[in-house]
Amino acid sequence: MIERYWTKIRRLGKHLFYLEGDPSMELQIYNALLIITIFSCLIFVIFNLVLSNIVLLWASLGAALFLLGCFYLLRVKNAFKTSFYLALSMSYLVFVFTFLNHEGIYGPTFYMLLLVHLIIHSIVKLKYHFFWSIVNGLFFLGLFYIGLYHDELITQSYTNKDAVFIDHGFTYIVAIIGFTLLINSVRQFYENQRSKVKEQTVAMAKTNSSLQKTSAQKDRIITIISHDLKNPLHSIIQTLKLVNSGMLDEEEVKLLNEELLNTTNRTFQMMENILEWSSFELKNETSQIKKILIKDLIDDTVEILKVIARQKKINIEVNYHKNPLVNIETDRLLLIFRNLVQNAIKFTPADGLIVISINSEEGFLILEVSDNGIGISPERLKNIFEQDIKSTYGTEQEKGTGMGLHFCNQSAHKLSRKLEVESTEGEGSTFKLVIPTGIH
């Protein structure tokens, strides 16, 4: 029972002392001190009733009611400035009244005057601090002058030393509570702001890291797109130049036009697949998984690559030892396949041979691309799959970025396997990809 009532009291206190949302420090301080002052005035009512000081009793009750009006303006009408300056004006009037009717310089008025000055400084803007310091200083000097040189205007209300002790002690304690609450509010607001800044800093760091990753991903995809489309488009351009050269007869032109149409259609289809794949990559999503026979998947790409190879007088031989059904990310597999074959074309001299072997064993697709090109040096072979953005040149000075094999290896890892390579400098290379078919 007691715990339930205590919970209700704590909930009410939290509702009174803490504003909802994200209030400013000034608003939070003013709200809390307003409540403290209202309760203090009500206690002064009881205190002056005990001391039989009827004048100060009514003054304390009037101040409490006036401050309740200010609290209503603040919490209900959201009129912070109006509420604050009304309370401030009333405070100085109460100080004058209390000073004249309660022992003057021998009473506790100046404790509260100092507290109010500190409250003002914690709420008003910095540019007004000097102004309110002058106001407070002049107000103090004026009251002190009256109390010292015109004591006939002061009402003597203390009847004994006990009343002096209780009045000063109680007022000082209220002032100390006000000081403590003010400092705690400022410190708490500072800690909250520091915590928010820390959270925002962490969030910004995460966002920055995410943006950097997205930017790197975008650059990677642009590199892949340019890498995969450059050779087919170059082949189309070379074919068009040959057609327009006037060196071919009508039958040859007709055959080239048919080949050009087929190559263009296949290149367009390949471009659509690459763009669709890149969209999934940018969104960090898994691209579409398709169930398809491996021959049906790579046939169009093989034809495009054969056209490119013929321009270097390179023959591509495809051996389907088996034609397994796969259920995997086909776009990612095609990315690896295109890069491996284009690499073989690039580093194989004229009249060379590239052999593509397709096989399957125990639920795994085995794809091999072999060439009799220039091979890879032992030093280069050690770091063949590292991210090494350096321009590389083929047998006919075809320029590349050096990123193709790095992308292939990354994609192989995403297909749950790695890429293997064997190479002898001057004799050729063999790249082998073994991945699960996805068929159970």
From TrEMBL:
Any single Pfam family the record assigns to this protein: HisKA
EC number: 2.7.13.3
Chain ranges passing through the membrane: 29-49, 55-74, 83-100, 106-124, 131-149, 169-186
Keywords: Kinase, Membrane, Phosphoprotein, Transferase, Transmembrane, Transmembrane helix
Catalytic activity: ATP + protein L-histidine = ADP + protein N-phospho-L-histidine
Top-tier EC class: transferase
Domain Histidine kinase residue range list: 224-439
The protein's name in its UniProt record: histidine kinase
Organism: Cyclobacterium marinum (strain ATCC 25205 / DSM 745 / LMG 13164 / NCIMB 1802) (Flectobacillus marinus)
